[in-house]
Amino acid sequence: TSGGRTVWAAGALRDSNEADGGGRERKNMTAHRIAVIGGDGIGPEVVESAIPVLERAAAKHGFGCAWERLPYGADHYLATGETLPEPAFRHLRDDVDAIFVGALGDPRVPGNEHARDILLGLRFRLDLYINFRPVTLLHPDLTPLKADGGGPGRTGADEGGRRIDFVIFRENTEGLYLGRTRTEGDAQIAEEVNTPRGVERIIRAAFDWARAHGRSLVTMSDKSNAVPAHHLWQRLFRDVAAEFVGIEAEHRYIDALAMELVRRPERFQVIVANNLFGDILSDLGAALVGGLGIAASATLPRGRAGLFEPVHGSAPRHAGRGDANPVATILTGALMFEHLGHPAAARDLERAVRETIAAGIRAPDIGGRATTTGVAEAVISRL
Ligand code: NAD
Ligand code: IPM
Ligand code: MN
């Protein structure tokens, strides 16, 4: 759209007419149907504290949300043996506009089979192949890196501190995650699946997004020097890059990229990688800008909204203490609103979060003393 920052190039929106192109939010009185799976550990706490914030933003911007809470998670699994029953899966597939998830993972389920069925099951079965994870420094003091960029040959210093702002496009339906394992003698073999269709479409999504958002550099990361199958990434990256004149395409091996992200995070704009590398880079990226408590994520198919869950997990040690940071979940809700066609609401939420952090109202993980609900209320008051 003309707004540039608003919509996916080829449309992540169910109905692009709902999108506002230049800052005006189109009034849409239909409520979006949003399924909510709080899940385990801090999941229910961060989700329930984020929902009133999102409600406030929706009301302000003239749209509604109908939240439908579903019970799936470790408690439900341990009580009933159900992970995600088929009728619930079909309901999530056919009847809702978006799925909003807290986190799944519980020490009482060491095999993590409920999370595999619910989280990975939804990603695979709904073909949510784009895992979009922005890494943005919301306040200068949130980075653990030196403010001046750390010395010769390193950039990042300017009057406002460092400017870290890139996005990770993580492939989310292939790789080692498919769980294709077998036993040979006493060896456990895990197969990594890289299909031309799967690799090409995530690379294309990264370039499409770069073009739609005025970015000039896309970095692809693999380990083709050690893993021959990754030459598929090399070939398809070259092919797709050739279609995007004006966007520089570069390659980094994943080990070198990890180093370079710590040394010079400012130089990166868009990073595309496979499922496992993208998972690891997500937490590294989060740490560069303040940690998992503020890291948002969207898991998308082409052409519609999808599943929205923060990068972090269930942080079991924090469960029930009221000190979990809800910002990751609030910003994940902002991504959800963006993909439901309400970019102005998304920008407003981001602004309110930045102002809350700047005012020093922070959960303990980012150096404050506010509670989960205290942070959420502070964001609401800035909306
Ligand atoms: P984690 O992300 O749950 O927590 C790691 C550490 O990060 C925590 O100990 C805590 O110090 C900090 N942290 C994370 N989120 C925070 C928040 N909102 N506020 C304050 N601090 C926060 O990772 P883990 O400990 O490796 O995993 C715990 C469980 O979560 C495991 O079962 C794992 O499989 C699962 N998990 C689920 C998801 C998901 O559902 N999307 C993602 C990652 C991990
Ligand atoms: C994430 C999580 C999940 C993943 C786990 C819980 C399976 O770490 O969403 O980043 O690896 O995808
Ligand atoms: Mn992860």
Low-confidence stretches: 1-26
Task: Please tell me what the overall shape is.
Answer: globular
CA(first)-CA(last) distance: 25 Å
Can you list the ligands bound to this structure? nicotinamide-adenine-dinucleotide, 3-isopropylmalic acid, manganese (II) ion
> Residue-averaged pLDDT, rounded?
91
**Content-based structural category:** alpha/beta
Number of strands: 12
Percentage of residues in DSSP E strands: 15-25%
**Residues in helices, as a percent range:** 25-40%
Radius of gyration over all CA atoms, rounded:
20 Å
Query: Helical segment tally?
Result: 11
Lateral strand order in the biggest sheet: 2-1-3-12-11-4-5-10-8-9
- Tell me about the largest β-sheet: 10 strands, mixed
List SSEs in N-to-C order.
Answer: EHEHHEHEEEEHEHEHEHEEHHH
Give your account of this protein's structure.
The protein is an alpha/beta fold. Helices cover 36% and strands 18% of the residues. It has 11 helices and 12 strands. The strands form 2 sheets. A 10-stranded mixed sheet has the order 2-1-3-12-11-4-5-10-8-9, with helices on both faces. A hairpin with a 6-residue loop joins strand 11 and strand 12. Helix 1 crosses helix 9. The longest helix has 18 residues. The structure holds nicotinamide-adenine-dinucleotide, 3-isopropylmalic acid and manganese (II) ion.
Summarize it.
By secondary structure, this protein is an alpha/beta fold.
Topology:
Layout: E1 28-39, H1 43-60, E2 63-70, H2 74-80, H3 86-94, E3 98-103, H4 113-125, E4 130-136, E5 165-171, E6 181-184, E7 187-190, H5 196-212, E8 217-222, H6 231-242, E9 248-253, H7 254-263, E10 270-273, H8 275-288, E11 298-300, E12 307-308, H9 327-339, H10 343-358, H11 372-381
Helix pairs in contact: 1-9, 1-10, 1-11, 5-6, 7-8, 9-10, 10-11
The site of manganese (II) ion (MN) has 3 residues, from helix 8.
